[in-house]
């Protein structure tokens, strides 16, 4: 009947508006039951369960065999790691697979059968699940004794397919691959030509004294390639040329030429290419998000205009305000936006909305939330008002910064003076006394600021929250110190008491004071710009970081499987850390490859001490110099250092240059917090989609039948 | 008289047009005598003498005391370096100073007294000369025994002031300094905060076993700062954290945080800032060159229009074609351009030229020299024409590439097979035979190509010249080999004869063959793009490289003076090389700083062997850990690696992105050689100066009185 139809239209409008808010695609089924399922699937609980499942299945790697999850890493002290019995992690895995199966079924149902076949991600999802389940069954039937567990390598796929940002980024990276491949090819040509030159230059000679270079680095083709590859990572850079250089100075030309061409030109060319490809990436991504939002709103308008209660005299389609109000009440959205839209609706004199008016109403969604700080309290007394002026003034904040700086300097002075003293000679009185004074000042500053601004206004500034929190922690620590060790006095050197020694307490307080000093950042213009750029970058980098995590996980699991069968089992945590360190200290990445002989390795082991010793003993036992380990580590170096670092630089350039240009155009309002999102950054250059584009897209909708 | 006036005008026009051609400023004296002096000063001979003088005075450093200019660097074999007697280098220096004095006088006279006081470069030039001469007198009166020779540090200034490009670039770098300083300040804050954290974290404990980290890296403030600074250059990266990590895994968080923030964020931020500042640099520089050219042409027009022979009936100023022809005959310019302008002048039907027509005539100067390859010979015989078609075809070139590749592969295979053989076991027959075959093919290819294209057309392609030259050299080498050692046969292992052993000959031939393989580059589109970008970059980088040389020279001389008084004298060449290596292998720059104890140093010395041994023994003797040496090397690291490398990356990005955009817009014509200059790269975006701007500038000319 008409009532049921109207209810359906209302529900469709609700879902479309929610899609628009979340930048989701509207290409899903739109019948009543599907809409209910759709809202249930995208409800917070469901999405939370899905995220939890993904986290769980990824975290399983840390406790699975071969586990090395222990508190200390020193093999002399640590207990053997706990290995779960067969079937425990496997049952958790099965549970996760069950959730994924529900997820993929709901998703497939919602987009419809025809769309399903076009969606490669969904098909890959199903295939991954089938392979994982098969592997799981094999694993259980062998009582967990199998060597190869493919499903572990496939796990990060679940993370990948759940994030639309990551999928988009992956597509974007994919389109850059041809150019990247060209440069990598160029690098390979560079490397191989120079390898041939090197082998011809540093050939074996009859005089055994003269061919140190040949013995050390260019004994055969793989050795020569490795030497030059490691030179490209600059890990072995002066050493590799010393024997040749000592024979003849001119040999250095070869190495300088290789380094300049490879490191300075080709490596930076990679940066240039990646930057060039990614210049438009952020803009394009924001543009498509905008299109999705406008499309969702337009779709909501179209279905609402089909409502039977709309009078038919109007030539153009229109939506009654009553219907929209009904929809708005049920839509889940930010309450500030909802109120703003309701307010504008009530101010509207007409009772019908055209498409343009409808779209305009929802532009509230795009607007930046301008944070209004609560007002300062208004004091009656003249004295209080003077106090308020004095302590609410910016100069009082600057004074606080100066005092914080003085505190830092005093700590620094004490550190320098105490540097060479024995712990037993140390007198904690001076530091205790000055810290006590400074912390009292911080407390006073906080209280006076609260007095001047009122508690709510004080807390509405992030810098004050940071400041206040640290001051309270410092105060608590100081009171605890005095309670346990008494007040400081000359020769104040009490013995260990309670949880922490006095010395540890003082160190902790000092570290917090150093940390608190970061409050000066927003006061320095350039620093604030840099910090906000970095924060933005972190936001925009989430997708990239996610892809890095996916690759990292797959790589680490593959590594653990590849390098199995050693004397000392290679723990999973250990291996994760090994790769992680290689990623962080990206330039020296290939350092393990530059150790070639067993004696060198032993020296390295002596260096690394008990820590990563089993890592490296392990790698030694599988014969690191074997080709596959080499290929494995070189691949990881290429992905983590070369490509990822360049992607990072490209994004940083993009973000920073936009920020910088904006900064020059208009001065930031000091009272508005830095809440710039990538959408707002590109506000000026975004193009609004035209009416025709929107309607064409709507007519292509696989499930929605427009009433006209 | 009128004749004298007319002659003056003609001479002025000649000089202005020459100024326009060379992009020189026209703000110089314009009376007859000055014009003659001006043309003499800018004549090739004079400029050549000036360049020679600058080169000489800079090169003096290599033979001056303390000289270490010897052929071999090995102290066991080399003879003591020749030290010139007192007064020899000094008299050469005096000669150079004399040339510079003439140079500065002429320059000052030509720009005029009032302009002279505004020109800071000229005043600095005179001051430098005065200081240098004073220092020279002091030096001679002390019979060359003085320790400090300021004039050596000042020498690179003469290079700097002679190049307008370098002065412009320096100005541009200067304007970027505030932003760079901000980031360097940020780096300093980052470093000092983390140093304080580290000193608090890794403090001395009562248990001597536990504080390996403190003993090794964080003993006091300078040690801690150095440890973290070296970590920023990644030279000591896994080592520095191992002791702490072995105590507790969580300590690695500190080091990872430091590296990620410092290396990944702040260092790359520097790239972003420098790139952002230099984005417009090339365009601006080209724009100002264009303005100078248009201004010179316009000035020539204005003075020619003052000629008395010009009829007065014209309202607008105009120039007679006869006068222009007279001027053109005396102007020194590219003959191709001159002919083109003459040709268009003769085709012109009118006998007067307006300003716009005059300007248009000289646009020939901006045009790219489109290189017309000479035509192929036209053969009468049908057979010859078929041959010509076959061997002039691109496929024949591709076949040549395939053969070159086959040659490379065969050399590679032989190298791999012979890798572990003793020199006495080696049989050179196989390689000799195949190389003989391949070289015959190369000869044939060259001859056939010459047959098809004709010698002149063949030589007009750079790739053919490269190819042909190498083929001829290979042929000569091969014939020489056969003449000395006879034809190859199995077991062909003759003893050493003549200048080079057979083995050396074969190696040389192989290296040339590998080098010849580079001819494939223009055939691969992406490679050609990359190579042309790199070549362009080298052109545009000349000014930057010049500034680097200036800084390098001043730094090296300062270093030699600072680190004087060692047991082993620190040779100048040795020091130059030490800094040069640090510049080339820029990342490990600070490696010398990471060696702290004497025992470590001895290990390093063992590493570097006899080569740089006296360098390092020297540095050890002055106690490298002394503050000033540290400051010196850190400053050099900042300038050479951080700032210069980033400038390089910025220019590379700028160049590459322009190139890439152009490539997308239009396909390059394959027959035109790559002769793109930076002027042409920006052709589409350059703005023509307006008539008003030009005339305003002309009226501001300090010496030229326009006749209207």
From TrEMBL, chains A, B:
<feature type="transmembrane region" description="Helical">
    <location>
        <begin position="250"/>
        <end position="275"/>
    </location>
</feature>
<dbReference type="GO" id="GO:0015280">
    <property type="term" value="F:ligand-gated sodium channel activity"/>
</dbReference>
<keyword id="KW-0106">Calcium</keyword>
<feature type="transmembrane region" description="Helical">
    <location>
        <begin position="508"/>
        <end position="531"/>
    </location>
</feature>
<dbReference type="GO" id="GO:0005262">
    <property type="term" value="F:calcium channel activity"/>
</dbReference>
<feature type="transmembrane region" description="Helical">
    <location>
        <begin position="122"/>
        <end position="145"/>
    </location>
</feature>
<dbReference type="GO" id="GO:0034702">
    <property type="term" value="C:monoatomic ion channel complex"/>
</dbReference>
<dbReference type="GO" id="GO:0097682">
    <property type="term" value="F:intracellularly phosphatidylinositol-3,5-bisphosphate-gated monatomic cation channel activity"/>
</dbReference>
<dbReference type="InterPro" id="IPR028798">
    <property type="entry name" value="TPC2"/>
</dbReference>
<keyword id="KW-0109">Calcium transport</keyword>
<dbReference type="GO" id="GO:0075509">
    <property type="term" value="P:endocytosis involved in viral entry into host cell"/>
</dbReference>
<dbReference type="GO" id="GO:0005765">
    <property type="term" value="C:lysosomal membrane"/>
</dbReference>
<dbReference type="GO" id="GO:0019722">
    <property type="term" value="P:calcium-mediated signaling"/>
</dbReference>
<feature type="transmembrane region" description="Helical">
    <location>
        <begin position="429"/>
        <end position="448"/>
    </location>
</feature>
<dbReference type="Pfam" id="PF00520">
    <property type="entry name" value="Ion_trans"/>
</dbReference>
<keyword id="KW-0107">Calcium channel</keyword>
<feature type="domain" description="Ion transport">
    <location>
        <begin position="405"/>
        <end position="656"/>
    </location>
</feature>
<dbReference type="InterPro" id="IPR027359">
    <property type="entry name" value="Volt_channel_dom_sf"/>
</dbReference>
<keyword id="KW-0407">Ion channel</keyword>
<keyword id="KW-0458">Lysosome</keyword>
<feature type="transmembrane region" description="Helical">
    <location>
        <begin position="601"/>
        <end position="620"/>
    </location>
</feature>
<dbReference type="GO" id="GO:0022832">
    <property type="term" value="F:voltage-gated channel activity"/>
</dbReference>
<feature type="transmembrane region" description="Helical">
    <location>
        <begin position="573"/>
        <end position="589"/>
    </location>
</feature>
<keyword id="KW-1133">Transmembrane helix</keyword>
<feature type="transmembrane region" description="Helical">
    <location>
        <begin position="180"/>
        <end position="203"/>
    </location>
</feature>
<feature type="transmembrane region" description="Helical">
    <location>
        <begin position="84"/>
        <end position="102"/>
    </location>
</feature>
<feature type="transmembrane region" description="Helical">
    <location>
        <begin position="543"/>
        <end position="567"/>
    </location>
</feature>
<feature type="transmembrane region" description="Helical">
    <location>
        <begin position="395"/>
        <end position="417"/>
    </location>
</feature>
<keyword id="KW-0851">Voltage-gated channel</keyword>
<keyword id="KW-0812">Transmembrane</keyword>
<keyword id="KW-0677">Repeat</keyword>
<keyword id="KW-0813">Transport</keyword>
<comment type="similarity">
    <text>Belongs to the calcium channel alpha-1 subunit (TC 1.A.1.11) family. Two pore calcium channel subfamily.</text>
</comment>
<feature type="domain" description="Ion transport">
    <location>
        <begin position="49"/>
        <end position="278"/>
    </location>
</feature>
<feature type="transmembrane region" description="Helical">
    <location>
        <begin position="469"/>
        <end position="488"/>
    </location>
</feature>
<dbReference type="GO" id="GO:0031902">
    <property type="term" value="C:late endosome membrane"/>
</dbReference>
<keyword id="KW-0325">Glycoprotein</keyword>
<keyword id="KW-0406">Ion transport</keyword>
<feature type="transmembrane region" description="Helical">
    <location>
        <begin position="632"/>
        <end position="653"/>
    </location>
</feature>
<protein>
    <recommendedName>
        <fullName>Two pore channel protein 2</fullName>
    </recommendedName>
</protein>
<feature type="transmembrane region" description="Helical">
    <location>
        <begin position="41"/>
        <end position="63"/>
    </location>
</feature>
<dbReference type="InterPro" id="IPR005821">
    <property type="entry name" value="Ion_trans_dom"/>
</dbReference>
